[in-house]
């Protein structure tokens, strides 16, 4: 059974599309963002590295990550962003590849929601790469109106990411999410039908 990677840009709807797809096919999944949050919350080795290389104020005295501060630092300093990715992503990859092997032994489709799929050069590890895209205007609107991020930070986040056009050129499947949930649902249904036909 295949391993699928779902990626894209910030606020393009990757997780929403993943949820819609999982409603239509029987598959295991892994959320790389959730794994990153867990590692920041509970992994002592990662906490020590973040405090040493990102900021001594990255965690509270109680050991809780200061997410707004970390976010502001990494989107203002590209070197810090790469440092944090270098800390987190080997551990994230180790986890999802182990899960993928387990799913393969049980003959299950495995879906990985992984924003930095191309940036971490993981595309060769997937049987299918799906890129979920949207216009820059839509991304900015979602970050500012739905996520309540300041305009300046939203622009920094967009500027820090790989171009969606580059990602789409490397995709086996492109999902465009600029026109509401109904169209996204129909694209999820089409991909689910393709996967059922190919692998059932």
Give a written overview of the molecule:
The chain has 200 residues and is α/β, with parallel strands linked by helices. The chain has a single domain (3-193), classed as 3-Layer(aba) Sandwich (Rossmann fold), CATH 3.40.50. The chain is built from 9 helices and 5 strands. It has a 5-stranded parallel sheet with strand order 2-3-1-4-5, with helices on both faces. Helix 1 crosses helix 9. The mean pLDDT is 96.
Let me know the largest β-sheet.
Answer: 5 strands, parallel
- The rough form would be described as globular
Number of beta-strand segments = 5
Q: What's the number of domains?
A: 1
* Beta-strand percentage range: 5-15%
Find the CATH superfamily. Answer: P-loop containing nucleotide triphosphate hydrolases
Helix content bin? 55-70%
What structural class do helix, strand and pairing data support?
alpha/beta
CATH architecture: 3-Layer(aba) Sandwich
Strand order of the largest sheet: 2-3-1-4-5
- Rg, alpha carbons: 17 Å
